[in-house]
Amino acid sequence: MSDSKSPVPSPDTISFPTHSGPRPVLWLISFLAIGLSLFQMYSAGIQPLGLFYQRGIHLALVLMLAFLIFPPLNKYRRGPFLWLIDIALFAAAAYSGFYLVFYLDDIINRAGFWSQTDIIVACMTTVVLLEASRRAVGFGLTLIGIIAILYALAGPRGTLPWLGDWLPGILAHRGYTLERVAGQLYLGQEGIYGMPLGVAATFVFVFVLFGAFLEVTGAGKFFIDLAFAGTGRQRGGPAKASVIASASMGSISGSSIANVVTTGSFTIPLMKRLGYKPAQAGGIEAAASTGGQIMPPLMGAGAFLIAEYTRVPYVEIIKVSVFPALLYFATVYLFVHIIAIKQGMKGLSNSELPNLREVMNRGWFFLIPLIMLVYLLVIGLSPMRVGFFAVMGIIVIAGINGLYQAYKRGSQNRNLSQEMVNTVKSGVHKSLLGLELGARNALAVSIACAVAGIVVAVVGLTGLGLKFSSMMISFSGGNILLALLLVIIASLILGLGLPVTASYIVLIVLVGPALTNEFGIPLVVAHLLVFWYSQDSNVTPPVALAAFAAAAIAGSKTMETSVQSWKFAKGLYLIPLYMVFHPEIIIGGVDWTLIVWKGIMVVLLLLAFASAIESYLFTWMQQWMRLILLSCTIALFFPSTMIQAVSAAIVILLLVINFIQGRSAKAAEQSLSG
Description:
Layout: H1 23-45, H2 51-69, H3 80-102, H4 104-110, H5 116-136, H6 139-153, H7 161-164, H8 178-187, H9 195-216, H10 219-231, H11 237-253, H12 256-274, H13 278-290, H14 302-310, H15 314-342, H16 356-363, H17 367-378, H18 383-413, H19 416-462, H20 464-476, H21 480-495, H22 500-518, H23 523-533, H24 536-539, H25 545-554, H26 558-568, H27 571-581, H28 584-587, H29 592-614, H30 623-635, H31 641-673
């Protein structure tokens, strides 16, 4: 297949969005990024390290990279003064990890009786982390971290007793000294180096690295070409290809914005050319890309975090997450299909699309690492070790294919040795590129998890989680629907300033106990519910980061695009709600026929909802049909089998009527045209 027919550029064209700076700094960034990735590979597959050794070195390297890559002020070039500040912060970041690792035995022996140096380094590390968060993640997360620290210091026995006077009665607490808070954040197992950073520094990093190697070796190009070849000829083909490509790419990359940029650069212009409005095209891409964060195996670090918090094996989290994720993508796909039919769209011509057989011939071997990854998880290997083998697998397979292609070219032009040398050079270059890209892609999630650790530590220290649960029960009056509405509102507020991973961690620490202990929601279902609702910041106005990225590509208004993405992503709200009232489809434990029944009901629910919202399925729907369908959508949530059966029968009847109306309208149209 020629490159001209491929919708994705060659991996050789990958470039990094680096800020301008002295060449030695750019070399240092590459050196540290590659070193970080090699360190992670070493600790994942060769020699596992202790908790604080692993996390201390990881965070130190991440913070050092952050101060090199992200300038203090985006609008200004770094002059001598700003470089002086960054050099000081860079040195402080390096020392934070060195101090923890080098003096770890002494720190442990002190058993909570911290020295003055411990406290100074703890304060320094906290400040450095918050500044790195401001640059790499955004001011919102930094502000949350600062508020958490101030809250811990407020109270009659705290460093800031006057601040406690401003706290409402239910939120008041005794207050803690600066030394106690600093020690808890830096030297406690629930602080900066707590479980969230532990997940980012082990499981998440190797899978992000795996995604980076898929990208630089051309696997991303293969999956997107495959999606276009399979669906491009259908009505609204590019939009459907966007959904499928986002499911495959997002499941590995775990970043909705990266997903938008990768696939949207090609799908959005094609959607616009086909007849989708710019805001619609951007909204479809944003909604589809957001699904990548709920699609196993990576789930934007969610699968690993849920597994750690619930103590449920990682492979089990993947198993229970597959069906809801497929339902989500099916809902977006259905919206896309309905709009394509409503607007009379056609698919792309064969000349505009890659050939399916040629795509498979060119990249079938990229499926091997994914199959190997799933197999190793199923047989029970540690996710960190599985990630290590997956990275090594893609390197070996891509290398073998590169040498084979070089052998074929060399045999044809009788210059075999030169072809082999060039291929080896290219392979080394791509390997280094993958190592650097993986480290860069992991910066934001590692920093976000470290700052989330600050919030987790403060919640544990002050008892805020129990207080928040009491408030939630009080405000909802024990009504589970009102409680879930409060969770949605809280996730929306947190989504204004926090990335998805940090939003999930903060929210589950605050509302998780109430959902499970007071409202009886199964533990895994409660975590999936919170994680799905934490996706708000990607598709829900007024802050919809994935939609904003898509709007920039589509050339549409940001708010209009975010409203469209919110509409297409409605499965993000409905599917978790169904899981709460019908947890059998997630946790099982009942007769398989009941699980199948519940599965059919949720499919009908989503079909009825999409048809009612768009007022179209096979043809236009009357208003009375839409109202009945929406009523049946609500009724299908009820646990009662009888109510579900009656509602399902009504939905099927209305859809059959709409199908007959569509056939009649089509026949009348053909007779008029004839």
